[in-house]
Specification:
The complex is a heterotrimer.
Chain A: E1 2-7, E2 16-22, E3 25-29, H1 34-45, E4 48-49, E5 52-58, E6 64-69, E7 73-74, H2 78-87, E8 89-91, E9 99-101, E10 111-113
Parallel strand pairs in A: 5-8
Antiparallel strand pairs in A: 1-2, 2-3, 4-7, 5-6, 6-10, 9-10
Chain B: E1 2-9, H1 13-24, E2 30-33, E3 49-51, E4 60-61, H2 62-75, E5 80-81, E6 85-89, E7 94-99, E8 103-114, E9 118-120, H3 123-126, E10 136-138, H4 139-147, E11 156-160, H5 164-175, E12 179-185, H6 194-201, E13 208-210, E14 212-218, E15 225-230, E16 243-246, E17 249-252, E18 256-258, H7 261-265, E19 290-292, H8 303-321, E20 331-336, E21 346-347, E22 355-360, E23 366-375, E24 378-388, E25 394-399, H9 400-406, E26 412-417
Parallel strand pairs in B: 1-2, 1-8, 2-5, 8-19, 10-17, 11-12, 11-17, 12-13, 20-26
Antiparallel strand pairs in B: 3-4, 6-7, 7-8, 9-18, 14-15, 15-16, 20-21, 22-25, 23-24, 23-26
Chain C: E1 3-10, H1 14-23, E2 30-33, E3 50-51, H2 62-80, E4 85-86, E5 90-94, H3 100-113, E6 119-122, H4 123-129, E7 139-143, E8 147-149, H5 151-164, E9 168-170, E10 177-181, E11 184-188, E12 193-201, H6 207-212, E13 221-231, E14 242-245, E15 255-258, E16 264-267, E17 271-272, H7 283-296, E18 305-316, E19 322-325, E20 332-336, H8 342-361, H9 384-393, E21 400-402, E22 407-408, H10 409-417, H11 425-432, H12 445-456
Helix pairs in contact in C: 1-5, 1-8, 2-8, 10-11, 10-12
Classes of the chains: A alpha+beta, B alpha/beta, C alpha+beta.
Chain lengths: 120, 420, 475
């Protein structure tokens, strides 16, 4: 059995959660609402994060294109995603929502542009 | 002299939302003046997500949030002057602007919305002792260089101040390969949102040292180190607690200041606590026809509230232009006992909307308290609050009905109380 | 190959540039060697910016002579060389009736030094002039001829005028050796060696080290640190005149003064400092300045401080300027120990010393030296019509980069392309005030970096705050 102490980030309250994991059983205490319980469970069993960064642009009015993973990705793949982002380069024009890297770092999630950039 | 019904100064989130709302409320002749070469303001560099949960019910990045408003402005055909700076506003709403194409131009505005945003408190204003080398940046400057120019300002970083931009930059620089050693915060609590402490610091094992400050900056040409000291309850450094970190960069995230130099030029009264204009429930300053919204009015925690407030300013400017009169007998709002300020600072019951959202910040971290609204000496509303913190904006809604039912009120007071 | 010059001036501060300018009016080739990347990088960049009327210095001293003449020259040159100067007057205030005789003494000293229009004021008159002053003010010495000047602006004006008349500047050139030969001196710097028939030592806090390279006559300079706080222009009119307290042993004490650009300046304290490079501010120094300043102006708005800085005065043991040829080193001229009122005295030192050097080298004045210079246009200060006209000629004057001080891209580009021009962020800042306002370059740093990189054709990663090693981007 393992115990995790977390701060819930679902609302400004910031409840101090205690999550205990015993095999398949996950118990959350310290939460004051169901969202807190859900957060605690997910944070301990399968934490995910949305990764945002920028990609170098060639021939655009801006030098960097802001990007994000379309949805959240497993927390442990964050640095792998960053590595792929750093290696990427796009050519303007770019349209907001455009896929920049498909299935980035094998997460099954696409990396997409979060703004449009016209060509210079 | 050129004339426009409504001139909006600033094309960031506040200015754009105000423009959209004013047009939707019927104002045809609107001009947005933006100093940068693109609309969107500070959101352009806020590439992280977490914007728009209230407005669009989804999590957007800063550029995505800005793009939604930009698109509306474009679709509505609202003209925007870019790379144009407003140099002066007169109390009669004459505006002097400057740009490369037209030079210095004076125009007359029927109404004005101030949406110039805020700036970061610089090192000099913090009185941090030591040398003045390269490598000391406000978090927002580092963010701009990182996210817009692709330049990493440092490799080994200490951050002073736990404001949200500092926390966001701690994560951002870590992801880009920098080593963020510590975040120090003068106060015994963080100035940033919990979510940012968890996702930007805890995720990467970056320690947050509360009740600490910088007591020396080392390095004459480039930062070579920073000394932190613990501070006592009086916020003065405690001798003997010094700890020196080797680093090449010090980021500062020590507060934002509404940028009201133009408001001062127009003779507008400012609130000593917010640093923004004093406004009534219509978000109108004491200069008739001049409205304010967004971070120039008071520093917000979430952009969603900026948009909502700015839309109100836009609608109210439209009402002013169609001849809504001046406030008759506004009731002052008093911020007391744990409430640092209120925006607006007064409400005119005769002319107010059915309800007015009053926003404010509290002075300390509070657990299990009541937020009480008094009409003169009568408590009329008690809101139980599990938790309140200075880093997060609070709000109460005052309804017209409650004011009218209560009879004459000479003062509305907001305060934090122990639960009865 | 060794470059040959008639005169080598060591130090590109206000004194070195004033000397170089005055020398450039003679038929002499002049080279200024400066250890930093730009002029005005030592004591010149961190001082009070005051043009002293001239009552402080002991009658008969070099300080007294140079001060009074210098004040007149600053006034005159601010017109012909176009740098910011304002005659705002000064008050030396005493807060204790027992000190009134000392004030009287100062007044008489001023008369002896030839200071015009001095007046002694009683308590009521003082407060009528400056309502923000402490109620304890018992009287004051009023010197209407005192003024405020932009130390950087004046130094740039001198340097540019010198360059226009043929003087050359070598930066990042600390003098590592100086050796006399039959025809003058070999001046060695890490990059180059040059030969000059005469040398002027205007090396600020390092003047004693330079002097010791060629002379056996003792000279000892103690860096005397002074810390300052600069306040927002919003409160720049709290006082109109420069407010001094009765001078003590360590200098003129803490002043409260409007700057020529409209900020309010508070400082300096005085602390002897063994390290010639130690310009770090300290918590104790700040506290010291605050406490002393409050004596003069009790309601100083500390929340309006936008920056703090420290400078080092070059204090010589003899307590006077050392100006002239070293008796045991022919052709080696000192301008050493130039502490307050050095900024004021600089043009007088330049004028006098250039005359001495020219006499030694037998050089005649040039027939037609360039005697005027236009500063970089301060675009935001122009009336709208003139501003528009200038922008029509050069649209870059209409692109505001620094919003706090309303500085345009055109002005920044000008700063870079002047001779000598800015090669660093500090160099731009000191020439056109970009980043000197209330946000302290928070907003305009990225844009100014990009302009500097573009104009110097260097990668942005090589942009420095000042000398190499102060790059803003850490690669």
């Amino acid at each position: 059995m393992t115990t995790h102490e977390l701060i819930c980030i679902q609302c400004p309250l910031g409840c101090a959660l205690t999550v205990t994991v015993d095999g398949d059983r996950v118990e959350v205490s310290g939460n004051t609402c169901p969202r807190g319980a859900e957060y605690g469970r997910k944070e301990v069993t399968a934490p995910t994060r949305t990764v945002t960064s920028t990609v170098a642009v060639t021939g655009g009015v801006l030098a960097r294109l802001p990007v994000k993973t379309r949805t959240d990705v497993p927390k442990q793949s964050v640095f792998a995603v960053m590595q792929a982002v750093r290696a990427a380069r796009v050519t303007a024009p770019v349209t907001i929502g455009q896929t920049i890297i498909e299935n980035v770092a094998g997460t099954g999630v696409d990396l997409i542009a979060t703004r449009s950039i016209e060509a210079q | 002299m050129q004339y426009h019904d409504l001139v909006i100064i600033g094309g960031g989130p506040a200015g754009l939302a105000a423009a959209v709302a004013a047009r939707q409320a019927g104002v045809q002749d609107i001009l947005v003046i933006e100093r940068d070469e693109r609309l969107g303001g500070i959101l352009n560099q806020c590439i992280h997500n977490g914007f728009g949960l209230h407005t669009f019910h989804e999590e957007l990045t800063g550029p995505e949030y800005a793009a939604r408003y930009e698109q509306q402005v474009r679709e509505l055909g609202i003209p925007c002057l870019l790379r144009t700076i407003v140099a002066d506003i007169s109390p009669k709403r004459e505006i002097l602007y400057v740009n490369a194409q037209e030079g210095a131009v004076t125009l007359q505005a029927g109404a004005v919305i101030l949406a110039m945003g805020c700036r970061e408190r610089p090192r000099g204003a913090l009185g941090l002792p030591g040398y003045r080398p390269a490598g000391i940046f406000t978090a927002g400057t580092a963010q701009r260089l990182m996210n817009m120019e692709g330049q990493l300002v440092g490799r080994r970083v200490v951050i002073l101040g736990s404001g949200d931009i500092g926390l966001i930059m701690a994560r951002r620089m870590t992801l880009e390969g920098a080593q963020v050693q510590v975040v120090a915060e003068l106060m015994p609590y963080s100035g940033g949102l919990n979510r940012n402490i968890v996702q930007c610091l805890q995720d990467y094992g970056i320690p947050l040292k509360l009740s600490h400050t910088v007591t020396a900056i080392h390095g004459k040409h480039r930062v070579t180190g920073v000394t932190l000291s613990a501070v006592g309850p009086d916020r003065r450094p405690i001798p003997g607690t010094e700890e020196t970190y080797e680093c090449d960069t010090l980021l500062l995230s020590c507060g934002l200041l509404p940028e009201n130099e133009l408001s001062k030029a127009a003779g507008i009264s400012l609130d000593r606590v917010t640093g923004g204009p004093v406004v009534n429930d219509r978000l109108e300053t004491d200069c008739p026809g001049v409205f304010a919204c967004g971070n120039v009015l008071h520093v917000h925690d979430l952009v969603d509230y900026v948009s909502e407030e700015a839309a109100r300013a836009g609608r109210n400017a439209a009402a002013f232009l169609s001849g809504a009169g001046a406030a008759a007998a506004p009731i002052p709002l008093a911020a007391q006992q744990g409430v640092r300020y209120t925006v607006p600072q007064c409400i005119d019951p005769a002319r107010m909307d059915d309800s007015v959202t009053v926003r404010f910040r509290v002075a300390d971290v509070y657990r299990d308290r009541c937020l009480t609204v008094y009409y003169d000496d009568t408590p009329v509303k008690r809101q139980k609050k599990r938790a309140m913190a200075p880093g997060e904006m609070e709000q109460v809604v005052i309804t017209k009905q409650s004011l009218l039912e209560h009879g004459p009120v000479s003062r509305i007071t907001l305060c934090v109380e122990d639960p009865a | 190959m060794t470059e040959q010059f008639d005169v080598c001036v060591i130090g590109g501060g206000v004194v070195g540039c004033a000397v170089a300018r005055a020398l450039s009016y003679y038929q002499l080739s002049v080279c200024v060697v400066e250890k930093e990347e730009d002029i005005a990088s030592g004591t010149t960049k961190a001082n009070s910016g005051i043009v002293h009327a001239g009552y402080d210095a002991k009658p008969g001293s070099v300080k007294a002579r140079m001060n009074v003449r210098g004040a007149a020259l600053v006034r005159q040159l601010s017109q012909t060389l176009d740098f910011p100067y304002r005659q705002n007057g000064s008050l030396v205030v005493c807060f204790n009736a027992a000190d009134l005789p000392a004030l009287q003494e100062l007044y008489e000293r001023g008369l002896q030094n030839g200071v015009q229009d001095l007046r002694l004021l009683n308590a009521e008159e003082v407060r009528a002039l400056e309502p923000a002053l402490s109620a304890a003010a018992a009287g004051a010495l009023y010197a209407p001829t005192a003024g405020v000047v932009c130390p950087f602006g004046m130094t740039q004006a001198f340097a540019e005028n010198a360059a226009a008349n043929g003087a050359v500047f070598r930066f990042l050139a600390p003098v590592t050796a100086l050796a006399a030969d039959e025809t003058g001196y070999m001046v060695t710097t890490p990059g180059t060696t040059l030969h000059a028939r005469a040398v002027v030592n205007a090396a600020g806090v390092y003047a004693d080290r330079i002097h010791a390279m060629v002379s056996r006559i003792p000279m000892h300079i103690t860096p005397r640190k002074g810390e300052y706080m600069l306040m927002d222009r919003e409160v720049g009119d709290l006082v109109t005149r420069t407010i001094f307290q009765l001078p003590g042993k360590q200098g003129k004490g803490v002043l409260v003064a409007p700057t020529v650009h409209g900020n309010l300046l508070v400082g300096p304290n005085a602390q002897d400092e063994p390290d010639k490079e130690n310009t770090a501010t300290t918590a104790s120094g700040t506290a010291d300045v605050r406490q002393k300043a409050l004596r003069s102006v009790p309601d100083l708005p500390w929340n309006k401080v936008i920056t703090g800085f420290a400078g080092l005065r070059a204090h010589e043991d003899g307590d006077d300027f050392i100006v002239g040829e070293a008796p045991d080193a022919p052709g080696f001229f000192n301008a050493a120990g130039i502490e307050s009122p050095g900024l004021t005295a600089a043009p007088a030192i330049g004028e006098w010393l250039a005359g001495q050097v020219a006499a030694r080298l037998g050089a005649a004045p040039k027939a037609n030296p360039i005697t005027t210079r236009r500063g970089i246009p301060r675009v935001a200060e122009l009336p709208p019509a003139e501003r528009s006209k200038l922008i029509a000629q050069n649209p870059a004057y209409g692109v505001i980069v620094c919003r706090c001080e309303s500085i345009s891209e055109g002005e920044i580009v000008d700063a870079i392309h002047r001779t000598p021009g800015a090669v660093s962020m500090d160099g731009i800042k000191r020439r056109v005030r970009q980043g000197m306002g209330r946000c302290q370059a928070g907003f305009c740093t990225p844009a100014a970096m990009a302009i500097l990189a573009r104009e110097l054709a260097i990668p942005v990663t090589r942009v420095t705050k000042n000398r190499p090693g102060s790059e803003l981007i850490k690669e």
